[in-house]
Design goal:
The protein has 16 helices and 19 strands. It is of the alpha+beta class and about 500 residues long. β13 (about 370-375) and β14 (about 380-385) form a beta hairpin. The longest helix has 17 residues, at about 165-185.
Length: about 500
């Protein structure tokens, strides 16, 4: 309530402190509905004595009052214009009764309190609707089938649905949905069209969400990118807060059909990639920011012409118990996240820290066309010819006598150095304090800018190292900026 009054202009600023100190909110004012004398006395007690100010504040009350309490209930004449986004006078309806029932008594938090992973674990259990951004009509038809034309929604007290989206990436899709649903005769809530000028996000969105019969979150890979970032604080993520509030409404109303996710596909050239990031371990398990963490733990590139054709010119990238496949020829994500146990049958460990493939013609015969895969203090051997488990697991100290560390974080096939050295001493200009993983494209594969380069990863960043002159080729960049589509960031 105080925040609402503060948006009305400088003449109203002085009322905020009194409203806050006296604990006045929408519930307080709704208890005075129909009692003009008590309402005016309350205003006077708060120091709001000017009749014009009283009328202006009353005109804004529908945005902060509990569902079903309209400004007309106060029976105080108002000279201000109707504040609805559709210009329709509120009227009682079946939808209003339903909304009153499903949202009564809910108190929403100021900040997100539920970890992104917990939210996604619930969201992904709900059957969603697939949406192609270049042709949304099929998705609209399925949404329309979920809406009730007889509900009596009026676009003021109630809305048929609430469109929740991340503005930076899905605004175009949200607007298309809004206007197509409007053309079908429905009243959707979209912030751009329905928020009252000068109203704060929280008050406006809470009002819209509480007054909607269906919650439609746009779930796209880009929209959920922040939720996959473990190194940022999520408490102020308004999209995730909307999801959290929608689950509260669903729980209080015992209405499992209140939420209907819209899975927005992504077009890469002429290819359509449906949303597929359903693996929960991709998402942050804490609202608070976590310390710098590895987003790539290991990589594997098959030697040229070795192994099945599906592995040619690909790099397999590992994180925790998952892996994805990156196309080195076209420099884009070839295959999204999958559990290691499903794609690497027989692999004896839970994750991959690093891999090592001996160059062709180098080393003993038993190392030819074999990948050494390291996990913790152990390793195994993988047959690259037929892409199958070969032998293991063994302790690193037993199979690599003299190796000076207890585990392997990353490997690089490069002219050999002598003994263990500090990175800063042997790699002048290297911008990080450690190396999580390295990718070197095979000869002749990929774009020209990747030739004779080593991509070196640390945390959520990477740099490019010139192997021809042994120097830093490119300053640090975020992985999400340089490897568009990589699913573990």
């Amino acid at each position: 309530m105080a925040e609402l009054v503060g948006t009305l202009g400088s003449a109203y600023e002085g009322y905020k402190a009194a409203i806050l100190s006296n604990g006045v909110d929408g519930d307080t004012l709704s208890s005075l509905a129909g009692d003009e004398k008590s309402l005016i006395e309350a205003f006077n007690d708060l120091g709001i004595t000017k009749k014009l100010h009283q009328k202006v504040i009353i005109s804004k009350l529908p945005l902060v009052l509990p569902i079903g309490t309209s400004k007309a209930s106060f029976d105080v004449p108002s000279t201000t214009a109707d504040v609805s986004c559709h210009g329709i006078t509120p009227a009682p309806s079946p939808a209003l009764s339903l909304v009153q029932k499903q949202t009564g008594g809910i108190r929403f938090p100021e900040k997100l309190q539920v970890p992104p992973r917990t939210l996604m674990s619930r969201m992904f259990l709900i059957q969603g609707i697939k949406l192609d951004p270049s042709d949304i009509k099929p998705a609209v038809a399925k949404i329309v089938a979920r809406l009730d034309r007889r509900s009596g929604c009026d676009g003021v007290n109630t809305f048929h649905c609430f469109l929740s989206y991340r503005c930076a990436v899905d605004a175009d899709v949200a607007e298309k949905l809004y206007w197509m649903l409007k053309s079908e005769g429905f009243f959707p809530f979209l912030d751009k069209e329905c928020l009252v000028s000068g109203m704060s996000w929280r008050e406006g969105f809470l009002s819209g969400l509480q007054r909607s019969l269906l919650f439609l979150p746009l779930i796209s890979r880009a929209a959920l990118a922040p939720a996959r970032n473990f190194s940022i604080d999520h408490s102020g993520d308004m999209v995730l807060l909307e999801h959290s509030m929608a689950f509260q409404v669903m729980d209080v109303s015992n209405n499992p059909s209140f939420i209907c996710p819209i899975h927005v596909a992504q077009r890469v050239g002429s290819d359509l990639h449906n949303f597929a990031d359903f693996e929960l371990s991709l998402y942050a398990d804490s609202v608070e920011a976590q310390v710098c963490r590895r987003v790539i733990e290991g990589t594997l590139v098959f030697p040229p012409e070795v192994g099945p054709t599906y592995a040619h010119n690909m790099v397999y990238m590992f994180l925790h118990d998952l892996y994805c496949k990156w196309n080195l020829s076209k420099d884009f994500l070839q295959q999204g996240a999958h559990p290691i146990k499903d794609g690497w049958s027989g692999y004896p460990f839970s994750h991959v820290d690093a891999t090592l493939v001996f160059p062709s013609g180098v080393g003993p015969d038993y190392a030819c066309n074999v990948a050494y895969m390291f996990c913790g203090d152990s390793y195994c051997k993988w047959n690259l010819v037929d892409d199958s488990f070969l032998t293991g697991a063994r302790k690193i100290k037993d199979g690599w006598p003299g190796y000076p560390f207890d585990h392997v974080d990353a490997t690089l096939v490069y002219p050999p150095g002598v003994g263990a050295r500090k990175i800063k001493d042997g790699w002048k200009g290297y911008p990080f304090d450690r190396v999580d993983a390295i990718i070197v494209y095979p000869p002749g594969v990929g774009q020209s800018y990747a030739h004779n380069m080593a991509y070196m990863f640390c945390g959520d960043s990477y740099c490019r190292w010139n192997l021809s002159n042994d120097s830093l080729s490119q300053e640090p960049r975020k992985i999400k900026d340089g490897w568009k589509g990589y699913p573990f960031i």
